[in-house]
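User: I'm preparing a small set of examples for a lab meeting where we compare how different chains pack in three dimensions. I only have the primary sequence for this one, and I'd like the structure in token form so I can line it up with the others. Please keep the answer compact; I'll paste it straight into my notes.
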Amino acid sequence: PGDGEWLEVEMIDQAMNAEMDKFVLVKFTGRALEIICEVNLSFKVPVRKEKGRDVLYLKLAKALYGCLSALLWYHLFKGTLEKMGFKLNRYDPCVANKNIKGKQCTIGWWVDDNFISHKRPKVVDGVIGAIEQRFGKMSVTQGDQHMFLGMNMRFPGDGTVQIHMGDYIQEAADTFGEPLTRKIASPATNDLFEIDEEQTELDDDKAARFRSVVMKLQWVAERGRPDIRLPIAYLATRNQSCTNHDWWKLRRVLLFLMDTIDNKRIMGADDLGVLYTWIDSSYAVHLDMRSHTGGVISFGRGIIHAKSNKQKLNTKSSTEAEVVGVSDYLPFNIWIRHFMEDQGYKLRENIVYQDNESAIKLEKNGRMSCGQKSRHINIRYFFITDRIKAGEVSVQHCPTEAMLADFFTKPLQGGLFHRFRDVIMGWKPISALAEFGFQS
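Assistant: Understood. Below is the structure token output for the 440-residue chain.
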């Protein structure tokens, strides 16, 4: 994006242009029947009576929302791109590439919202023209700023992308419905995982708002503000039994967001041939004594993926929790590796960092490192051993002071919170962790 053309293309209502491949009847009654007969007088002819009411049955010719429209549109658009010579990425069926004039042209799409990129602007114009020949005029946004799926994206020309989601955050704050003016330093306090069982549950209206805001902020945390991912991951586990204490925790997240609403996430890469992954687990922090896994992946500037989630089984030690955490998060590392290779970027190094030496030994040696206290660990958690032996990934020790995944397992405070946040938000490169023992 730094030295090429990146365009956002909206194919307005084109998802409704896909032909229905099944026999589907639509039943019209009441006011809907009156409107459709006003639009097309010929529809009055087949109107019939059913139990004293006028009824009209019509065969659905084109896709309709709720009737497999997205899938039908996907196959139509995919087929069109393939006829144009584009080849799908095998690991993301909504990304397609074609070599044009010696450079790669990439198209990605989400239903009928698309982005197109190429080094040469004229190539992009040609691709848009070819698509418009099939589907008609499209809404095209050019330049270095785009609104895509709720993200305000800016490409400043230095090889990075900046993402701002202030409007989406404001929408969540409006739904919350309470004043949010106090300034706070972090989105969660040390008691994030604690549950006060004496607290009363929220009434129906407040519980509905709680769930709505948490769902909105899950998207914000995923795309624009990974610095709130841990508290939102936890609050998502409280949707079915949210209390006043949970409401207070959600309010703190919103106070933090409103105070930092202008903050932008920055993503870039120092070297697309080197992938860095940090994985960590907090042992038995949930009420049911399950542990919490955090994982984060970077190409050197900002992060491209992060995960913060409660483990799905109980473990008997912190070491076992770490091994389970690697088992849970490593597939994302593997997927990114395969995706990038299909995009034409082969990794030279793929490094996974952990701060638990015992877990590292188990992962490198498998059953050979199992002692009396670890024999019960299921063999499925040692698939990383096979990846290491195959040379697909290496596991290295990282000091806790530089363990970036800690940000997604513990409600950090003070200097450590800001140290990791600066790196996660892309304001500082991962090399800034070197003074704390990180070795890339």
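A couple of notes for your slides: The two ends are 26 Å apart (CA to CA). The CA atoms of residues 199 and 243 lie 6 Å apart.

User: Perfect, thanks.
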